[in-house]
Amino acid sequence: MQRYKCIISYDGSGFSGYQVQPNKRTVQSVLEAVLAKMHKGNPIKVSGSGRTDAGVHAKGQVIHFDSPLLLPEERWGAALNSMLPEDISVQSVMKVDASFHARFDAIGKEYRYVLYLASIRDPFQRNYACRYPYPLNFEAMQEASKYFLGTHDFTSFCSARTDVMDKIRSIEAIDFFIDGDFLTLRFVGNGFLYNMVRILVGTLLAVGSGDLLPEEMPVILEKKDRRSAGKTAPANGLYLWEVFY
Length: 245
Hints:
The protein has helices spanning about 25-40, 75-85, 140-145, 195-210, 215-225; strands at about 1-10, 45-50, 55-65, 90-95, 110-115, 130, 150-155, 170-180, 180-190, 240-245. By secondary structure, the protein is an alpha+beta fold. The protein starts with a strand and ends with a strand.
């Protein structure tokens, strides 16, 4: 039995998230169905670096699985891509030690959130960027983002539906990139709570629109109350960009 690590990309528009759910199309269920076909109906379990919600995309999601098939690494990628639907693509496959775990061995992640700022909507962007056609104070947003750097309790920026007890996380970088009508926010940290990036984005948009002040961010962190932060930004602008090991 050999363990394989794969980097995969997917368009989240047509999925009900990453994790297997009854009677729903998910990234994990599609991957496992294809692997089962390759293994003559025998189930092969896939483990991912983490879950993504419905509509969230991935550029560099990482998974692992075990297989008795003796295929070269390059043939694994070709075989999987020939059977996977067009909204999932295997970028690379490599053999790893049996102790490797896509989730538990990860030491950090990078997410990116794309905002489309044009006044007129573009139907071709509706699934891949969050449209925000209102004025934004970029300087205020950048000032507010500095308060999130470092290690904090991010309870205020986590969905109340999470069952995770430890909500302390470290954010290493928050960067802003403007390219024409697009604003991309880049988040790098040691881990992110359920909906954390989307709530951070929603809060920064509230700052950019003048509904919140940058200096209110430490107060919101201190309150440890989801109701004190901004709205949860839509899923369609979020990308799991890279997982670090």
